[in-house]
Amino acid sequence: MKQPSLKFVEEKYDDETVKKIVEQFQRDGYAVLPDLFQRESVDPFVEELKEAVHFDGLGYTIPQASPLHVWAAQAPRVRQIITPTLTHTAASALPSLCNTMWLLSTQDLTDQVPGWHKDREPEGMPGNEYHYPIDAFVGFYFDDVTDEKGPLTIMPGSHWDASVTPYTDAPKKKVYCRKEDGILLDQRTWHCGRPRTVPGMRYLVVYAYYLVPVHYGQVHVMPDAQREIWMKQQGRLDQAFWGGIFAPPKEGE
Is 120 in contact with 139 (CB distance < 8 Å)? Predict the structure, then answer.
């Protein structure tokens, strides 16, 4: 299969831009990541998504074997920003892609739009103080988001202030981005979707990243004995204990 058309902006953010993004992420629970892709390459990429999308009986999705499935996850500016959003230490762990979710919807699938929710709960936060999240999500719409296209809506600060909930009169904010941008989200923040009210499909993908404890050494190769045990595990807890975030491949794969 040919390489996807989506082209990245290779130049890294300058230090001041990184500082502003991290500050907003920590204060509000989200930040727009500008200029991740070359704008003129986004529409051809969307055309490739249109050709690849299929209905699997439960919903629309992109085949997992297609390079389109994870292509955008490797944007250099995304990889640059993940580490400082998850840690402040200089001897930082390494960022790793741990989940991919395609949330494809059309105008007639408004019942699939999620209401107010959190995907994470605060860890070790006895009061209104900030703690780093265990992971961070980045979403791409590959479109210039407007009210008619169903923008993400969040409650700023609800990831660290437990008094900010959808059941109060606390401010709610719609998040707009351009087709070349992404949205960095702390999943402890209250957020919800909005229905698409114009024809067409919304090609939203969300990637989750976390830090793995590889600091100065090499990336580890799983010992043969551990791999042998991991490959035999069926339950979720045992698979995670022996192999980490991913389940072992099924027999014959």
Answer: no
Per-residue DSSP letters for 106-124? ETT-GGGS--SB-SS--SS
SS3 245: coil
Query: pTM of the prediction?
Result: 0.90
Note down pLDDT in tens along the chain; length 253 residues.
689 999 999 999 999 999 999 999 999 999 999 999 999 999 999 999 999 998 888 788 999 899 999 999 999 999 999 999 999 887 778 899 999 999 888 765 555 667 899 988 876 555 667 889 999 999 999 999 999 998 999 999 999 888 899 999 999 999 999 999 999 999 999 999 888 888 888 999 999 999 988 776 677 888 999 999 999 998 989 999 998 888 888 765 5
Q: For residue 29, is it left (φ>0), alpha (ψ between -120 and 50) or beta?
A: left
What is the token pair recorded at 8?
A: 């990245």
CATH match of 15-219 with 3.30.420.10: no
Phi first, then psi: what are they for 48, rounded to 5°? Answer: -70, -35
